[in-house]
Specification:
With about 425 residues, the chain is of the alpha+beta class. It is built from 15 helices and eight strands. The mean pLDDT is about 80.
Amino acid sequence: MEILGVPFGLETGIQPWAQQCIGDLQSFLTKLQHEHIPKQNALLLLRACGLPKWNFVSRSMAPRAIQREHELVDTLIMETACRKMDLPNHSELPSIVKSRLALPIRDGGIGLRTFADTADAAYIASICSAVPEIYKQLQGNSTMPNRFRNDVEYSHSRLIGTGISYIDQCITPSTSEMWLKFKNGAPNHIQRLLTRCIEQKALHSLLSPRTDILSQSEQSVQRSNYICSMASLRASASKISHDWLKVLPDNPEYRIADHHFSLALRAYLGLPPQDNLPSKCVCNEILTPLHFHNCEVIRQSACSARHDLIVNRIARLIRRCGGSAIVEPAFRSDISTEQTLRPDILASLSNGSFMVDVGVVNPAAPSFSNAPALMAIRRRESLKRRKYNGIAQANGCRFFAAVANIFGGVSNFFNSLITAIT
């Protein structure tokens, strides 16, 4: 029997219903891979529409009855995301990248949470929310109904086993106490709180250093890939660095071309820009994700092009806001030595004039590998302020060091610059 889209009865009848739900989800995932749906839109739709489709199932059905279905759905979602975003096959991804796909965006992930890990939290939260109504139907009987007991105790024990930290607020040490505690109402957002605890535990596990990899040779590709992945995780979890994954492309300025989106996602996850790269660079060094930003052969052209793109984008934004922007103006810093300084932009707006100098840093470089997330940005920011503050003050301008890292993190001065422009 099915009521409000949920079957009631023996597990033998639940399995076909779960398979039907998977079929409906597969149809959605297949349509999502259509070539006319941009990658940026597809990832938003997958998080906003695909995950809630199965979240209803995870709240309605006991995880013990459909555990295999949860694992199958996780695999389908991850494979769809990898295929649509032109990432390597999900089975071939490094373990740290697989974990990051499931982490929330605010923690440096993609936001495709896995139901095999969070189904117990969803089910317990659903039961807690329904306790007052069930209690009324039982006419004050404080004993948990037998038909719920085994399923609830199974999920409850699995949650307790994860060591979550919100037990007092969300669930009790035993199911019988939980039944009594929530008979008059349950707290809001229980599922969100419980799921957050699980996600934080996964993040803490990722941030714990792998000594078996770090002890390998400096030239080890595996060690280099791991360091790059860890640095990108710390940098991507910083404020604003992940906003491009959440913005709605309802304006041409907010739309990212498919090829660029795929490359940005690879950089965000610490993956190489392509799958089948040669083992060595043109400079004869071993080719690793750490090498691209530091190679003396390709650095001058590629990094300069990236720098110029950022400068031109800022200048265009200033002009669109009604100001003037001169790119690379020359200033005499010292008349006696005739030394010339060239900040990237000299801008004038209604709220005053300011100079801007752009910088891009690599927090995965060996000198920053164990540093805090924004240390690389702060160091470059400090160098630029020492270099240009004097000449900016002499010309009655404010100075902004617009520094970003290669994973999307930006400095506070960069944020202040955007505020000053807009």
